[in-house]
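Researcher: Next entry in the queue.
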Amino acid sequence: MQQDEKRLAARRRSAALAVASVSECNTADERLSSCPTRATQLRHCGVAGVYDRASLIAFPQAMRPQYSAHLQAILPAAAEILLVTMEYPENEMQGPPFSIAEDEVMGLYQQRYDIRRLCEIDILDENPRFRNRGLSALLERVYHLKP
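Model: Structure for this entry, 147 residues:
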């Protein structure tokens, strides 16, 4: 388990895909609106990638397609994404963070990106607050999305 944790930490640190955060907008509505200034800046300032650690999992399922489409619309065509998701039995806890299955990641991003799962780690033991919320399982997955 420690080996997996070390690899995950190293992958997170090596997210030296130039990091751009879409969550600089103040509200979910702002993040999902056109944010024309932000979109123009991202497209033209040489952004190489996004580290999405907490944005996608913060949205309920009904909002994720809109978030994904917005993110893809404002990013330069060559920008990569390092995406971190969590998956757990949805009947055991209501998010946020919300559970996201691998199939959903594929559905949201596979038209534009080649998606490679970098790792999958059981993180329930190191996050007792989730066990206290009723979870019996909690997986964290890290994906590299490359155009």
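Model: The chain has one domain: 2-146.
Researcher: Noted, moving on.
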